[in-house]
Design brief:
By secondary structure, this protein is an all-alpha fold. It has two domains: about 1-30; about 30-108, no CATH class. The chain contains five helices and no strands. It has helices at about 5-30, 35-50, 60-65, 75-90, 95. Helix 2 packs antiparallel against helix 4 (about 75-90).
């Protein structure tokens, strides 16, 4: 085998080993928990709200809420609302379903 072929073969083996290692680490993570799901949903909501606030191609939700232009909602208002929701949504659904700790922030 030539040096180039041996180098390519060692690169392929290294890539396979790295892929296997990444797959093992991914499997160690386990399924997403409620905390991670809620943060993902809130992040997606923030992005959607930022992009649809005043898109310039159609009327955004800012224009629908205040058609006379009396108040312009900024990006920071969306961020503050999402952060407040992050503090209000419980990190554990078990206590929420039982009716306990509904609006108490649980730090872990």
């Amino acid at each position: 085998m030539s040096d180039e072929a041996e180098t390519r073969l060692s690169e392929i083996k290294a890539a396979q080993k790295m892929g296997q290692s990444l797959q093992e680490k991914y499997e160690e993570l386990g399924p997403m928990q409620w905390k991670e799901i809620s943060v993902s949903i809130l992040f997606a909501a923030a992005v959607i709200l930022w992009f649809t606030r005043d898109p310039q191609i159609f009327k955004g939700w800012n224009n629908l809420m205040f058609p006379d232009g009396s108040y312009k909602v900024g990006d920071s208002s969306v961020a503050v609302a999402i952060v407040l929701l992050m503090f209000l949504i419980p990190q554990d659904l078990g206590s929420f379903r039982k009716g306990r700790n509904i609006l108490i922030v649980l730090y872990s």
